[in-house]
Amino acid sequence: MKFDRFLAAAASAPPAVVLQVSYACGLGIIRDLAPHGVPVLGLDSNPRAVGLSSRLAGAAICPDPRADEEAFLVFLEDLGRRLPQRAALFPSHDEFIWPLSRHAERLEPWFIVPFSRWPVMERLYDKRAQLEAAWRAGVDTPRTVFVDGPDDVARAVSEVPFPAIVKPVESLAFKDRFRRHVLDVATARDLETLYPQVNDCGTLIVQERVPGSDDELYTLGSYLDVQSRPLAVFTGHKIRQHPAGAGSCRLGVSRWVPELADAGLALLTELGFHGVSQVEFKRDPRDGRYRLMEVNARHWMWHSLAARCGVNLSLAAYRDVIGRPFTAPRQADGLKWIVATKDVPLSLLEIARRRQTLAGFARSLRGVRIDGVLSLRDPLPGVRWAGRVARLSLRGVNATRFEW
Questions:
Q1: Which of 164, 186, 208 is the last residue of a domain?
Q2: What's the CA gap between 153 and 142, in Å, rounded?
Q3: Is there a single domain that holds both residue 232 and residue 282?
Q4: At 221, phi and psi to the nearest 5?
C-alpha cells in the first residue's frame, strides 16, 4: 500500500528515491524532502531497515549492489518503468553511489542523477586522487606516504611521525574486513607488523595522526550544481563520536567556520564536483590549521542538522535538478544533533569510567534540536531502532563494541 501511494503521489510531482535507509543518513534524506511535498521512496536490501517503516515514504526491497551490481541495476530499470515520471536518486552510502555514478547514462531514461559522473567520482573513490587534488588546491593535509610495497613501508617509517593511521585508497573491502575505515599504528614497529595483514588491500595510505581529541573534528557539508557552484553550504563541529578516533557522530553542533568552508569548496572546485558531499577536517591544535581527513561524495550521517539550521542540502539538490534552483540562506548556529540511543548509553558508560563528568554531559545536551533517528512526526523508525538497541542490551551486548 505504501508503494502504491508513492506511485500515485509521483504522478503530480517529480519523485525522489533514497537508497539505503537503514539508519540516520537515509532516514534524514526522507525527512528532509517529504515535508516539502516531494514523493519519496525508500529502498534497502535489508528488509529490517528502520527507514522502510517511515510514514513519510514508500518502501521497497532492492538487491544489494555489493553482492550483485547487475541485479541492482536491473531492479532500478524495472522500477523506473513503473514510475509516472523521472525520479531523483539520493544514495546515502558509498556502495550505492559508486555504481549509480558509473552507470548514470544507463539509468537516465528513468532517473535524474544529481551528482557527478564516474570520471569525477573516481577521483573521490580513490583517496590518493583526493589527496593529490587537495595539494593542488592548497588544502592542508596530514603528513602522508602512499604504500605500494615494502620499500614504501620503510619510507613511511622515516617520513611519517607516530602515532599514525593506515587506511586504504579504496575503502569498501578494507572496511568489510576490519569493520573500520582506518587502523591505528602507535609505533614504527606496529606498522611493520601490520603490513603483512593488509598488503593485499591495494595501495595504502600511512598518515600522521593529527593530535587532539574527537572534538577537534569539523565538517563542511554542501550542495554544488553541475558547474560546481555552491547553492547550499553548512559547517559543523563534531562533539562526540564512536568509536573514538575514527567513528561516526554521536553529538554534533552547527558552527559556521569561514576558513573551513573556503578550504572545502576549493577542493571540491578543483575536483569539478557536483552533488551533496561532506568534507571532514581536523583542527590541528599545534597551529590551529584545518587538515583534511576525507571527502564523502554523498550525504553523511548527521546532515539533517544542516536542514534544521536552514540549509536543506537534499532539497537544494532536488530543486536544482528539477529546474527550480535556489540558494540556501546562512545557517543558524549553535543547534545540536544527537543519536540519543547511541550517545546516552555510551556517555553513561564513559561517566562510570570517569572519562567524562555527569555535569559536562548534561551541559553538552543544551541546544539539542534534532535526533538522527527519533522523531515525534515520524515515530515508527525510532521506536523500532530503540527496541533493537534495548534487545541487544538485554542480551548483554557491550555498548563499546556495538556496530551502530
A1: 208
A2: 17
A3: yes
A4: -115, 135
Measure CA 270 to chain center: 21
Give yes or no: residues 222 and 204 share one domain: no
pTM: 0.92
Strand 336-338 relative to strand 368-371: parallel, antiparallel, unpaired? parallel
| Gyration radius of the chain's alpha carbons | 21
Whether residue 171 contacts residue 94, with contact meaning beta carbons closer than 8 Å, is answered with yes
Cα 152 from chain centre: 30
109 and 197 co-located in one domain: no
Indicate if 55 and 167 belong to the same structural domain. no
Backbone φ, ψ for residue 115 (5° rounding): -160, 170
Residue 175 has pLDDT above 80, yes or no: no
Confidence of residue 401 (pLDDT cuts 50, 70, 90): very low
Q: 369 with 321: CB under 8 angstroms? A: no
Cα–Cα–Cα angle for 56, 115, 322, nearest 5°? 60
**Which tens digits make up the pLDDT trace of 352-383?**
999 999 999 999 999 999 999 999 999 999 99
Does 137 map to a domain?
A: no
Tell me, what's the pLDDT at 243?
83
- Tell which phi-psi region holds residue 370, choosing left (phi > 0), alpha (psi between -120 and 50) or beta: beta
Sheet holding 275-283, edge to edge: 290-296, 275-283, 217-224, 230-242, 248-254, 336-338, 368-371
Q: Which residues pair with 241 in a beta bridge?
A: 249
Number of domains in the chain: 3
Tens of pLDDT, residue by residue over 299-334, are: 999 999 999 999 999 999 999 999 999 999 999 999
Domain containing 167: what range? 143-208
**Looking at the domain assignment, is residue 274 inside a domain?**
yes
Contact, 297 vs 315, CB < 8 A?
no
Q: Where are the alpha helices (DSSP H) in 113-216?
A: 118-125, 127-137, 150-159, 172-178, 188-198
